[in-house]
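Researcher: Structure prediction, please.
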Amino acid sequence: MMVSSKDVARLAGVSQPTVSRALRGDPRLTEATKQKVRSAAEQLGYSPNAFGRALATGRSTRVGLLVTDLDNHFFINVLAAIHDELGGSGHEMILLTESSGADGIEARVSSLGLGGVILATTTTASLLPIRLADRSIPFVYFNRVSELVAADSVQVDPEVGLGELAAALAELGHEQVGAVLGPSNTSTGVAREFALRRALAAHGLTLRDESTRRGDFSVECGNLLAGELLDAERRPSVIVCGNDDVALGALNAAAARGLRVPEDVSVVGFDDLPTASWPIVQLTTVRYDLEGMARAAARAMVRRMESVPGAEVELEAVVLPSSLVRRRSLGVAPTRS
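Model: Predicted structure follows.
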């Protein structure tokens, strides 16, 4: 037989509304009352239904996380932190992918009864933030942002990490710098490229057009575009990549051509995903607190969803610092005859 909140209320000796308030952590209740309700719920194996809570409170506790695809290692490595942070505050994560397009996503947001969306796929021309704002659906920019609609955001400042990288490249004698950068229609792609160019210029280094490629943040893209740079008559001594997935592709491209890393060419990434530290990879990369970033986005989403309807809530912009972590893939520039 299914256990209901009435059963919990009867065992705890409280009213049914008190059960709902206690399980939401209502600060107006005493800790003793909340603990009594939690103990009764645990004893009976009671778990409140998300749709039931939404009907009772008029608010959904479901949060959508929109990602480009499930092959991208960046997204794979933030799912657990977002899921756990939302779960700790009584919210449920629903995973969405971009495969159905913006209109399909809007329909799914409504059909799934989502109370908010964490956007991890925003491009500079994306209309989805506008459409969500028009429907008064709260959202948070995660990693990428758009200037079309102001909203809470969590992103990384690449300046310090790429500044440390440029200093290391100058120290190691790298004068021929190549790059496989992210797409120019994403804030991350643009910010990392500008920061890299500024940092290189501060050390007298230049990123030439013929040594620059742009593409999506995928292993396949890194393999293809880094391969073009490696096949060029004037091969770069180092390839700086838009993220770690692209860098993995660059490592594959070097291996396919019989080139040693870092003796023949160095490779650098961005994100410091767990794969980067594997002994077989040992990727030099720009690091930031990836888990902290994911949890900050979840907290921002909950804060926005639980604000009083119609109340003015100041926008929150969380910016995480970056730093360089040096590993085996970055070495002294090879001597050219």
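Model: The mean pLDDT is 89.
Researcher: Thanks, that helps.
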